[in-house]
Write a structure and sequence with these properties.
Length: 123
Amino acid sequence: MLSHRPVRVILGGETVAETGNARFLFETGLPTRYYIPREDVRVALLTPSESHTRCPYKGVASYYSATVGGETWPDIAWYYPDPVPECPKIRDLICFYNENVDAIFVDGAAVEKPVTKWSKKAG
């Protein structure tokens, strides 16, 4: 669902994405995901990774790692360069792992960090 609610992603203490044009994706059993237009992401902080995963509902995802303040977060964000025909509206939008960034704010309020199978474990 296209939303004009402000969404801001913080990683390494810096804003890495900020938009008023995110697509909110609601999937059963998963946290809400915020797909952000590329032009609203600081893509200079991202590096394409070799990782790819397949979702039967969306297609093959490609991943980005992010480097902020000298620290790198591998595979912290993903996008679908060629989603399945039933899901064209997420093409090339970038989504960050809510559970692994510092914070995601929607309407200025921090979204609760979910715990999922993708959550990074404290070492």
